[in-house]
């Protein structure tokens, strides 16, 4: 890991912006879940990969609730933001509220707030692209689906803007083994598998995680089972950045930093 170097985030960077609050009206999916022991760490906190699993499951349940799973079954997440404001500890009942915070004809940002009955609070947002599995290209949302999503946002011309674009460090990475169970129906490594690596390489960064903190993960290109994945890291005074690389090609970048205020 590189020595600590101050590289301040530009003041207008979205990395330093708080996520939008829960809307007062419009379509908000609301579901409760139990926190299972499979998702807790050695200190009984909800792990970051466990948060990702709850978000994925809530997304599927939301589509079922809207009777939209058959018409919109395939999605790829381009970016996930997770703000751990008050860690959730086991045992706990979770309340997950999910709504649209920005939309265009082929993609949308989906906010999700996770509250626990023991005082935990996690705020998240994902940039989701609706896919045509046959062509592996973005697919237009149905008009009815689009209209419902628009009830919680005025941003109907959502555009992609990359948040993490630093070049891959020249220092050697650490090999991170992949498993067959990490593969999804696109033949890509699942979202949760990336978060396994994030947890592994950030678990000891307690100077960042002891206070409210933010994880950002952006996916650039898919990783497939059988490829050799290396994780490169860089530590500054206020952030820990991870690069997911295959043969020197950056496939994803993640960052742990203080939560936006």
TrEMBL record:
Superkingdom? Bacteria
Q: What processes does the entry annotate via GO biological process terms?
A: fatty acid biosynthetic process
Entry's Gene Ontology molecular function annotations: fatty acyl-CoA hydrolase activity
Please list the residue ranges annotated as the Acyl-ACP thioesterase N-terminal hotdog domain.
37-147
Which residues belong to any copy of the Acyl-ACP thioesterase-like C-terminal domain?
174-235
Write down the InterPro entries for this protein, in alphabetical order: 4-hydroxybenzoyl-CoA_TE, Acyl-ACP_TE_C, Acyl-ACP_thioesterase_NHD, HotDog_dom_sf
The protein's matches in SUPFAM superfamilies, at most eight in alphabetical order, are given as:
Thioesterase/thiol ester dehydrase-isomerase
Q: Report the coiled-coil segments.
A: none
According to UniProt, the name of this protein is Acyl-ACP thioesterase
Q: Which organism is it from?
A: Nocardia terrae
Q: What is the lineage of its organism?
A: Bacteria, Bacillati, Actinomycetota, Actinomycetes, Mycobacteriales
